């Protein structure tokens, strides 16, 4: 079973070295997987990448050449791009600035197929999201500047829009 935990690392290009560096960045936080699903791009089928996967005991499953859109990674990329486009248009910021908020929203939304959010499956608990922080602030109010509260409201609204969009397009 897949946790559907989203990860995205901005890279300048998609050559084998860049892909391996990005994978190592993820693996340094999440550990090395037993299996990984990839597309058939040369950055995932090159000798260097193949040797990398073999050395770390990672079984590679490639998506169908004839039907790449069936690959869950490709579906995730489409959803991620749509969410980033919406957030970038709303905030006026570039996609790299909006990436962390988008990933947070995606990892905290409950999936119909699993009944859990990806963060619950990976971390074993729900994450403290901006919504939780806001709730904690209301339940246990302390003196704080209104700008902090406004910022948290903004984060909550941004995350809710991402989650709603994800649910509609899952």
Automatic annotation (TrEMBL):
One of its GO terms (biological process) is DNA integration. GO terms for molecular function: nucleic acid binding. Pfam families: rve (PF00665). InterPro entries: Integrase_cat-core, Retrovirus_Pol_polyprotein, RNaseH-like_sf, RNaseH_sf. Signal peptide: none annotated. Residues 1-126 form the Integrase catalytic domain. This is Integrase catalytic domain-containing protein. It comes from Araneus ventricosus.
